Structure formats: C-alpha cells, structure tokens
Predict the structure of Periplasmic binding protein domain-containing protein.
Amino acid sequence: MKNWKVLCAMTLCAAVVLLGSGLASAADKPVTLVVSIRGLDNPYHANYKVGAEFLGKKLGLPVDTLSTEADSQKGIADIKAEVAKTGGNMVLNLDPNQAPDVVPIAKILEDAGVYWVNWWNKPDDVKVTNYKYWVAHITFDSVGTGYFNAKELFKTFKTPNKGKIIALQGLLANTPAIERFQGLQNALKEFPEVELVQWEGADWDRTKAYNATKAMLVAHPDIDGVWSANDEMAMGAIQALKEAGLAGKVKVNGTDGIPEIYDAIRDGFACSTVMQDSKYQAALGLAMSLAAKEGKLDVAKLDPKYRSFKIAGVEVTPANLEQVINDYVKNTPEYKLDVENLFDKFVEPAP
C-alpha cells in the first residue's frame, strides 16, 4: 500500500510537471490575429484580410482569415474551431454576417477569454459593457454617409435639387442599411423637390441590384438619379443604366470605396462614394484587442463611450478622387495604432 501511494504521488507530480510545461509552451506561441468576414469576393471585405496581414507583418504575428460565405452558422462554427485550434491564444476582428450572430459568438469568446472587436452589426439591446473580453463595437456614421451621398446625387440633376430618384437598399436587417437609408430620408426632407418614386432591397448584391434597377426603370424611365446603399449595388445599377442608354445622364452614388466605383466616378457614371477603409478597420480592431490582451489597454476602465462608437469614413467626389486613390488604393497609409491613438477617429457614441 505504501509503495502504491508513492507511485501515485510520483505520477501526480509528473502530470503536474507535464501540464505546467504544456501551458508554458502554449503561452510561448505567438498570438494569432484573426479576422472573420463575409467573403473575399467583395473588394471591401477582402481588404480586411489585407489590413490584418499588414499588422501581422509589422508585429511578426500569424494571421488567419475566416470567411462566412454569408452563412451565419458557418461563421459561428469557424470561430469556435479557431478558438480550439489556437487554444484561445488569439484576438479577433469581427464583421458578423447578421446582427443576431454576435450573441453566440460573444459567448464563445467570453468562455475562452478571447479579446475581440466587432464592426457594423449587433442587436441594439446587447451592451458591450456587459462583457469582459468584448473590447469595442465600432461602426461608421452611416446616417451621415447616406445623407452626404444623397446631397451629392441631388446636385447632378438637370435642375439641381429637383427631380426623381429610385433607391437600392442593402440587407434590410443590417444596421448600416437602415441608417444609410435614414440619411437619405433626412436629405429628402431638406430638399422637398426631390421625390423618391420607388426603392427595392438588393441585399448588397450587384446582380440583385441590376435586376431591381431594370425593373424600376420600366416603371420610372424618367428618373434623375439612383441612390445606392453600397458600391456593389451601384455597379449593378450602372450596368442597367448603360443598357437603357441612361448611364452618365443619370448618376449613381455608392458607399465602401471599391476600385470599380472610382473608375465609375472618373468616367462620369457615379457622383460619389464614402470609403470605409476596411484595411484600417482590421488593423484597428486587432490592435485594440491585442493591446487589451497584453494589458496595455484596460477594458474595464475605458470610458463607456469608447466601448461602442462611430468613426468617420472618407468622402469621395470627383474633386478628391485621385488623392484618395493614391493614399488608400495604390498605397496603405501608415496607420497610427499605438494605445494613445486607438480612438483618434472617434466621432460619437453608438447605441
């Protein structure tokens, strides 16, 4: 019996030593920078990957890019698998497929102790401050974006600020789609001689926008402009306008800043876009999460306004087009991502 107790004690000691060495080994591994996006087919989303790799190269850290392919269940499952793969030694920058996805993802990350930043979508009743590892929810001033693009569109009418428009909405449950459309509504109130004769939801999709625009042109062939909630849908609308012989005569606006919209602005088919710099979004979200993980950013002591906030996009018109292309497309800005600069682009708190 004595020998058995000695053997058990020796086995337990060995197990503790092995476990301790395993933990030390896991801790010694570099932190993985992870981005979860809707897909790589849209240049806006693809630039999240570029931004993450920019930061990874700068810091010498590995990068993993997860793509939901517009499938919420896949997005949630992929994050869970990534947590298992890295042993939780990761930080995450998330652009969720839909707002409700945030709730199960938050639980996975809280349970694993993974710091993360969320962009664009979350349920209004979900509060970031109720979570320990959710560093921040960040979005753009989407109402301001919709308003700016509407005003730029109205200027292009044969009689400025007087005419008819049709509109293309994004996913109707998405917060940015709702807010950008609110910006359009605000502009319509300011310019009562502009009439919105019809709108359709096109789910951020180029093909759906093309079909929707073609159908609306049948009912309203005498429009003066097409308001679009993003660039992909704007490009679909431009194709429909080309086929109707109206491209250039009837202008379109966009939002996101994909390369094709810049060509459309240069060619006179589009009037404006607002660039959402997704390279910066990825780099910022990962830098914030990494600073929290390393103890450089005390999440619990952050002013609540910095836990959920809006930043400004880059407004693009023919006047500044070439400068924007040079600064953001041909080059990647040297983003300021030190702890003291993380909130430089803060505009106002977000819900």
Remarks:
- Residues 143-275 form a domain with the Rossmann fold fold (CATH 3.40.50.2300).
- Residues 2-28 form the longest helix (27 residues).
- The chain has eleven helices and 13 strands.
- The mean pLDDT is 91.
